[in-house]
Design a protein that fits this description.
11 helices; two-stranded antiparallel ribbon; elongated; alpha/beta; Rossmann fold; Helicase, Ruva Protein, domain 3; 258 residues; 7-stranded mixed sheet; 2 domains
Length: 258
């Protein structure tokens, strides 16, 4: 039995075992977190190497029933840790309980950003994310201030995770091959427990300013400071120039004007 890749699910099955091994080896089990949830395992190319490590309790989740059946038939070691669920719609505490777990996967490109935002919701339970994305997304997440690639994902993820771009993967090692290159990144939860500002407002300001990235910060936050005689050095800059700490400072300033 094999699984047919489904375009509507964004499936591109990784066929190069060396790359699967490399991803598995670079998952570092941050903070001694031995439980790991693989998203979209498909036919288990990466699952195989995660299980071989012997130091991980591997859980897998896939929305594709054909993949679920394949995993049940070929990976008996997983037992009941195979979940027929939509990651984006699942209460992860119902599946993984309250204890920490890492997230790994060759993520479907069409929902990869949403997967990261979902992980952000559970950031205090997910100490590490190790995964493959479309290269453009991987670069954006890991990018530093001052680059055109630096954006909303960069700031929001880097607020809570230290991110390393690990390596690039060519198109030909997938079946079917995607039309773009892929990139593997590793995100490790940093020590920032809170942002020292209103986190919801922080998220709103980051999104609002980057939605007008060609304009200055003042234009991006005018819905909060409109009509007020306020000034701050950060208001004269563009969003891609601001670090996470500066966005926190900006949020605290906007809060002070409300």
């Amino acid at each position: 039995m094999s699984v047919k890749a489904k375009k509507h699910l964004g499936q591109h099955f990784l066929t190069d075992k060396n790359i699967c091994r490399k991803i598995s080896d670079q998952y570092q089990k941050h903070q001694a977190c031995t439980r790991v949830l693989e998203i979209g395992p498909g036919m288990g190319a990466l699952t195989e190497f995660l299980l071989q490590r012997g130091d991980l309790e591997v859980h897998v989740m896939d929305i594709d029933l054909e993949s679920i059946r394949y995993l049940e038939e070929n990976f008996a070691a997983l037992g009941e840790r195979i979940y027929d669920k939509d990651f984006l719609k699942t209460d992860l505490k119902e599946v993984m309980g309250d204890q920490p777990f890492g997230v790994v996967g060759n993520f479907p490109y069409n929902i990869s950003s949403q997967i990261l935002f979902k992980c952000l919701e559970y950031r205090n339970q997910i100490p590490e994310i190790m995964g493959m994305f479309q290269k453009e997304v991987a670069v954006r997440v890991a990018e530093k201030p001052g680059s055109k690639a630096y954006g909303i994902l960069s700031v929001l993820l880097q607020a809570y995770y230290d991110i390393d771009y690990c390596f690039t993967v060519d198109e030909h090692v997938f079946n079917p091959p995607p039309k773009v290159k892929s990139g593997v990144i590793r995100c490790v939860r940093n020590e920032r427990q809170s942002l020292e500002c209103d986190e919801n407002l922080f998220f709103q300001i980051v999104k609002a300013t980057f939605n007008q990235r060609r304009k200055t910060i003042r234009n991006g936050v005018k819905q909060w400071i409109k009509g007020k005689d306020v000034d701050h050095e950060l208001l004269t800059k563009r969003p891609e120039q601001l670090s996470v700490d500066e966005f926190i400072e900006l949020t605290k300033f906007v809060e002070s004007t409300l």
